[in-house]
Design a protein that fits this description.
Elements lengths: L1 E4 L5 E3 L2 H7 L1 H17 L10 H8 L1 H8 L4 E5 L1
Antiparallel strand pairs: 1-2, 1-3
Helix pairs in contact: 2-4
Length: 77
Amino acid sequence: MIIKNKKTKEIDEIQYNDFKNKYKKEITEAFESYKRTQLNKQYYTYNKNNSLEQDFFFDLQWNFNHFGMSNWYIERM
């Protein structure tokens, strides 16, 4: 996985498990934003089986880059 800083253009190549540990706060913020967005949609039906979290991690790159407020973004997985 290649992570890039928006401001400094610094590039970091990191494994998925290390990414989840290092950017835990940013992932949590992005997930909460994603969750609020999905639950505010009128047509969204909430299932009790954590489908929101599964959907978020299914397309982690797009969701992290668009719902997160981090200076880092996932350039390539």
